Amino acid sequence: MYYLIPYAGGFYQSDGAPSVPFSIRNNLNTTLKTDIEKALDGEYSAIYCYEILEKLATSSYDKSVIREIRKDEESHYNVFSSIYFNLTKQHYQPKITESCPNTYHEGLVSAFKDEQNTVDFYLKISDKTSDQIIKNQFNRIAKDEQNHAVWFLYLMNRGN
């Protein structure tokens, strides 16, 4: 059994997984459900591709930056999974929606573009929902994604 524990950005389950309160399920609509599914697929794909990108990196510094970004993506995935489950009472089975580039530079360019597009997508979701908890989570994660884009741009331009 899990208990919801409040924190500044929403709730955590007693097992440490991010959660949202039962009451927001009343706000579920098809568009929100579809948007969260797309966000889950995007985070899942990023986790997969960033693992490959980390292996392609030649410097330990680049590897550590990519590893930290990947950890953030895992956290985002867990937040969205929790929101999705609390809204639908179903577990979503994510899909890899993008192929991963074969070279390090192509991977950085792809990651940078994807992070930038993701910021816009998450902010649109935030703007569309009236639920403050979901709005806060998507805004917070959009900020992380923007930070990731900056890191990928830095890695692209610094050269190895």
Which regions contain 5 or more consecutive residues with pLDDT less than 50?
1-15, 20-27
Number of strands: 3
SSE order:
EEEHHHH
Give the end-to-end Cα distance, rounded to a whole number of Å: 49 Å
Strand order of the largest sheet: 1-2-3
Q: Any idea of the CATH class? A: Mainly Alpha
The fraction of residues in strands falls at 5-15%
Pfam family, one: Rubrerythrin
Organism: Bacillus mesophilum
Domain Rubrerythrin diiron-binding: 108-158
Protein name: Ferritin-like domain-containing protein
Outline of this structure?
With 160 residues, this protein is mainly alpha-helical. It has helices at residues 30-56, 60-88, 104-128, 132-158, and strands spanning 4-7, 10-13, 18-19.
Write the layout of secondary structure elements.
Elements: E1 4-7, E2 10-13, E3 18-19, H1 30-56, H2 60-88, H3 104-128, H4 132-158
Antiparallel strand pairs: 1-2, 2-3
Helix pairs in contact: 1-2, 1-3, 2-4, 3-4
What report would you give on this structure?
This protein is 68% helix and 6% strand. With 160 residues, it is mainly alpha-helical. A hairpin with a 4-residue loop joins strand 2 (10-13) and strand 3. The radius of gyration is 16 Å and the shape is elongated.
